[in-house]
Design brief:
Blueprint lengths: L16 E3 L6 H16 L2 H17 L7 H17 L3 H10 L10 E3 L2 H38 L3 H38 L18 H5 L15 H11 L7
Antiparallel strand pairs: 1-2
Length: 247
């Protein structure tokens, strides 16, 4: 199994190693990690849409338990739950706290190469999961469009279709950010040292560009992210609690 695909990947020990800051832009590294922690800790829109989808699965799973298109919705829900369990912000924060506030050019102890390599591998996994999410969103949208054409439970279909559409936009933004962050962190892997055994398997090579490795070609396109406000979300939750919603 590929390293990025291991569910419970054991991280390397949290330790420090002597580094020459003349070869490392410490301020830039700190800024990149801080921004990454902020981004992955505050994915309000993504987690809100994931919660709406999870609520829909919970409410509809009995009525549609034998429906093939609902299995696709459950698949999307499972992928999103897996992504939420990765806690990439916590892994980034471990690196962030090891960077000293005051440092000298030739006598500074910082994070190790092993610790950074672990985060790079996790970012590969994040990229794969987000790509799988995008594909699942497309499948869900196609299935719900078919249900809308047939007119069967069209209220349910349009709600799930709208949720998948919003998820698609938000996840694309998260994937774009993940690829950019990977590109910022990768050069530091060659500059940092280790104290102890190498964590990466022998011969493991990181791709130079995460987007090329993931085979996506739309990162240079600008996307406008427009999400419904909280009032609309609360309205949806009230509607799904009503028995009339299923008629």
């Amino acid at each position: 199994m590929d390293l990025w695909n291991i569910k419970d990947l054991e991280p390397p020990p949290v330790t420090s190693c002597k580094a020459c800051t003349k070869q490392i832009d410490v301020r830039l590294l700190h800024a990149v990690l801080q921004e990454g922690v902020n981004f992955f800790s505050n994915q309000h829109h993504l987690f809100t849409e994931a919660a709406l989808l999870s609520r829909s699965v919970y409410r509809f799973k009995v009525k549609f338990r034998s429906s093939k298109d609902f299995k696709i919705v459950e698949k999307l829900n499972h992928i999103l739950r897996t992504y939420q369990r990765m806690h990439i912000s916590a892994a980034l924060n471990v690196l962030l706290v090891t960077i000293p506030q005051n440092y000298k050019s030739n006598n500074t102890y910082m994070l190790t190469k092993n610790m950074l390599d672990y985060v790079l591998v996790r970012l590969q996994g994040v990229g794969k999961l987000l790509c799988a999410t995008l594909e699942a969103c497309k499948e869900v949208s196609a299935a719900m469009q078919q249900r809308l054409r047939l007119g069967h439970f069209w209220k349910v279909a349009i709600v799930i279709f709208a949720t998948a559409a919003r998820l698609f936009v938000v996840v694309k933004n998260a994937l774009k950010y993940s690829c950019e962050m990977y590109g910022h962190l990768l050069p530091y892997s060659a500059s940092l040292g280790n104290s102890g055994v190498q964590w990466l398997p022998e011969g493991y090579i990181f791709p130079s560009h995460l987007d090329e490795w993931l085979e996506i070609d739309w990162l240079d396109l600008d996307n406008v992210v427009e999400i419904l406000d909280d009032d609309a979300i609360l309205f949806y939750l009230k509607q799904t609690d009503s028995d009339d919603f299923y008629s």
